[in-house]
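Question: Hello, beginner here. Any chance you could explain the protein record under this note? Any guidance would be welcome.
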Amino acid sequence: MLPGELIQSPSLLVLLLIVAFLYASVGHGGASGYLALMSLFAFPVTFMKPTALVLNILVSAISFYFYYREKKFEWKLFYPFAITSIPFSFLGGIISIETHIYKIILATVLLFAVARLVGLLGKQKGELKPINIPLALFIGAAIGFLSGLIGIGGGIILSPVILLLGWADIKKSAAVSALFIFVNSISGLFGFVSKGGTLPISSVSLIIAVLIGGILGGYVGSKKMNTQMLRNVLALVLLIAIFKLYTT
């Protein structure tokens, strides 16, 4: 079980709140950020995956609510990804991988998160195109499997892909990503538990921190707010976590 002082660390709780705020503002659950923080705070890998998924479910649900309320969600853009991502996320959740391989995969995914945060990935295209269903099914399966494998929702990858392919604008891609993260995180968590994995008894303080951050982030993100400076700071934190993951 995790030491109480580690879970109750004030600096960890503040950082979790900030991560939840920033990720929810762009329709993400924040699992990649939570995993990076847990890595920096030396959480055991066995606790990282389920804890990140639980927190991810909470924040992505909040984020989706705010974007849905603003009428940004489109079912026809969501379902092709979800059809394949949900079963493949469950499959990924069942699979256990060695710690050093897990860290390498996670560090690589965090590079995508950094690129997304600093604006190198996911810039909106001027002209939107109809979604390509077969390609969306393949993308959903690939991201879903990776999501279940390492404990993320996949939105940090899906959102830039949607924007780069010109299938939606920023707000609609955020709404789709939020629900995509929610269903994938639940599926991945079920897969993890079905294989004998146990959920860590996390402190209520962790949940409260991400709930506050998620509510604030979902609200301002669904409206309009420039948080680029904060995202740059978070990107720096993720880079430090990436370095640690690659070198330990």
Q: What stands out?
A: The two ends are 22 Å apart (CA to CA). The longest helix spans residues 45-69. The CA atoms of residues 68 and 175 lie 7 Å apart. DSSP finds eleven helices and no strands in the chain.
